[in-house]
Design brief:
Number of strands: 9
Radius of gyration: 26 Å
Strand content: 5-15%
Protein name: Heparan-alpha-glucosaminide N-acetyltransferase
Transmembrane segments: 145-162, 168-189, 201-220, 240-261, 273-297, 360-382, 394-418, 424-447, 459-476, 496-514
Distance between the termini: 40 Å
Largest sheet: 5 strands, mixed
Shape: elongated
Number of helices: 14
Keywords: Membrane, Transmembrane, Transmembrane helix
Length: 522
Amino acid sequence: MLTLLLSAADSRRPLPLKMDEALLTVNNELDTDVSVFWTSDRCYQCLYQKLGDVSAQDSPGQPGSVDFVVSTQYELTLQVNTSQVPFHFGEHGNYSLWLKSLSPSAVNCSIVTDADPVNSYIRDSGISVTIAFDLRGTFSVCTRIALVIMVFVNYGGGRYWFFRHASWNGEFVFIMGTSIALSINSLLRAGFTRSSLLKKVVWRSVQLFIIGVFIINPNYCQGALTWGDLRIPGVLQRLGWSYLVVASLDLLVARGHLDMLTMEVWWSRGLDILLYWPAWLCVLVLEVVWLCFTFLLPVPGCPTGYLGPGGIGDMGLYSNCTGGAAAFIDRWLLGEDHVYQFPSSRVVYETDTPLDPEGILGSINSILIAFLGLQAGKIILHYRDFPTSIMLRFFIWGLVLGVISAILTLCSTNQGFIPINKNLWSLSFVTTLACFAFVLLALIYYIVDVKKWWSGAPFFYPGMNSILVYVGHEVFENYFPFHWRMKNSQSHAEHLTQNLVATSCWVLISYVLYRKKIFWKI
């Protein structure tokens, strides 16, 4: 349920306020009882939810009055009869909503600030910073570029609503693909056979899957794991699957000695694509499969091609259709008890249907973004002696992918052909992330490798033990000194301090391991 609105209809004592909450007193000067409803601006095409009832005034000058606790996370729209009042409440502020009669059919609604809110962004601001790196290893100098890109990606470790997954439409596997290209090229040049490398790829993927299922499974929060409700998909499982497919494709087409290729023919400017056309064909076929399943697969009780959140979204018409085909496939193949039970859409859209953000259908698009990262690696390899060419190609890829995203979304959040959606790993989500990844990679490449203005420290050190840092964070996030009992759990400042201390501890640990040349690789 949304923690947005909690009523306290009978008490006249001040209601205790938590973080991201405010007090709203509704004063009714009408001659009839009224019901107050609300909706959030983050809730697209949502049904209004009931805030509570307020009795009529007892006598002139004595309005009926009820206190409510409201959320300050997003702008709300309050509705009384046919009148609507949009307002963004401030944290710990006190407000009054006055209801007055203008005519028998018209109600005047006005909000008055009784006590100013605190400025949580200055006085008590909080930024949840948790390091959670994707899989990569010590491949080459370009790895430093990859490591910097992944710094401060919050992958479920943050404790603030504004760093959690988007409620519905709104991790880069990209850089893992870049590392795959650099690593396989290096190993082929070193004399390793493709079959031996394939065995390593398979074994590494299996290890990632096992670690994800049995060590950092989020169901541990509910107690000991059982086979009956073991969550099968997950972050590392998704990484392992993407790594397996993309690395296997690269092993089929990769060339170890690129210096033997001529750069004088007319088509040499497209070497980084043309030489690997079989892999591109496979990825495009996979994307067609994703499109067909997403938009053509019939889902019982739901519109074909539905991409919405269900619940109270879409005016409550498709309450049990959360995630459309993606969620249906997961429930059908894995079972409802083996997928993530608490999707982010529960918070705003009040959905009851489980939806796994690392589900089966979305894995196809994670392969796509990893493959786009692989393309970035191919560019680095083919044009390693031409920094300008590398940067130009990165920017061109970023532009092309950005245009595709603009077309798919019509430059909007909830409209367009395919909205940007993290929960479903929609095609526009992938193209948008890849767009920014190419641009950011170009900038980091210029700063680190071309100009050598920065080595990537201190973020370089966690990257050299990325899997250890990620697993360690997930396992020990509730242990001291990464976590402690707060004196004031509703303080942004204390949350900020705790997260910064935890982040600093892992950077320090990774630095010590780096100095001692201890690296955990799988």
